[in-house]
Amino acid sequence: MTETRRDRALTYAFARDKGLVVMGDTEDGAISLGVRTGADPFAIVEARRALGRPFHFTNLDAATFERELSEQYARNAIENDETEAAIDGQGDLHSLIDEIPQTADLLDGDDDAPVVRLINGLIYEAVKRRASDIHIEPHEETLAVRYRIDGVLQEVLTPSRRLAAPLTSRVKVMARLDIAEKRIPQDGRISLSIGGRSIDVRVSTLPSRYGERVTMRLLDTRNALLSLNDLGMDDDTLTRLKSVLAQPNGITLVTGPTGSGKTTTLYSALSVLNNGQRNVMTLEDPIEYGLEGISQTQMHHKVGLTFAATLRAILRHDPDVVMVGEIRDLETAKVAFEFSSTGRPVLSTVHTNSAIGAIQRLRDMGIEPYVIAATMRAVLAQRLVRKLCDQCKQPHEATAEEKSMFGVPAEQIIEFYRPQGCMACSQTGYEGRLGVYELLLIDQETRQLIRDDVSEDALEARAFANHDTLFRNARRYVIAGQTSVEEVLRVCRREED
Hints:
Layout: H1 3-8, H2 12-18, E1 20-25, E2 31-36, H3 41-51, E3 55-60, H4 62-79, H5 81-86, H6 90-98, H7 114-128, E4 131-138, E5 143-149, E6 152-157, H8 164-174, E7 186-194, E8 197-208, E9 211-220, H9 221-224, H10 235-245, E10 250-255, H11 262-273, E11 280-284, E12 295-298, H12 307-314, E13 321-324, H13 330-341, E14 345-350, H14 355-365, H15 369-375, E15 376-388, E16 394-397, H16 400-405, E17 415-418, E18 430-441, H17 444-451, H18 456-463, H19 470-479, H20 485-491
Parallel strand pairs: 2-3, 10-14, 10-15, 11-12, 11-13, 13-14
Antiparallel strand pairs: 1-2, 4-5, 4-9, 5-6, 7-8, 8-9, 15-18, 16-17
Helix pairs in contact: 4-7, 6-7, 7-8, 12-13, 15-17
């Protein structure tokens, strides 16, 4: 008898009310049965009859039982092959909604909690469609459920708003948040396994006019732990970035908007630096992925564990390399630059639109130009453009304006591609994303320009005279038919002639 069928012998309502939960198998093939303190002995006899197998007791206090109950029913629903079969298309998500009864307690019943199944169906479908986020947004009459796929939001469900409260409550239980507290934002995590893949779900709730909205970010370790060679950099950028990482000290920044892949790039850089002979430490808010052999510290601003304060503290732990999740203020910037001046490398991020913009951002924070010039080694700006679906992309002859825009001779006949939409790409015309990069190296001449506090335009003209900007770097994808002109213009600022 499979584990899933065994669990289904104890319905959610029975397990919750009687204080019993199936926790898995023991080494001798019996069932490990968690028993809440004060559980009904007659319920144990009924569970023995329903399960049809011997079991061993594990006594659980009330809090541990509630956590185990939530985790087991969430995990088993996600890992169940029947779940995969049941939601093999968008229409079946609607059927999961139809299964939810009009009862006071939507988790009560003999069908293994339809709300739990709906939530796990949403998560499974999101992973299957490569979504990075799930948005659950209550409106006046409906509840909008949207996926962010390849950086763009797509609506997948609009059920009745009556589902808002039970869906939100169940997500909060899974993330170990306070169900009763609806007035303030809350943050939590859910750990799941889908087809052998470990998925971390970062949950955030926020009060809104018609109830709490929920955003779930899906973090798949397989997508984060990439080598530098797998990031899609052109040869010139990759070679120059590796030369920067080989330097013994200085600050390297990665910049770009939210969702542009900065964390993935930083982790890839850390994997190069983490050679087993260095003490590598990171400060993150939050920690998105666990890294083998690296000490990672989660920020906790409510108790004063800020980037600046923690960075000062870890200097006493003899680090060789430090990664700061984000330089947000002058205090953090000063400590990072002071640490780097002691002869050790620092990696971090800032939110700017370009590599040159990071220099100006540090100036605006209050870092002196001579300090930036002496300590900064490189700034990598990046974006992600959507990749055209290979099944349905349509060629068209490039117009004169498009040729001019992407540096193609006017007399040359060339085909560019545009999105069409098909079943393979869910009618979007795109599937997957590609990295676009510009790398600013701080050489002697650029260092002197920074000391002289020249304008951004002058600095950019010098720095990218012989190297790609973001827009120029994206050109290779358009020429190769991997993305569209419209997608590049959506993501990258067009260069002026």
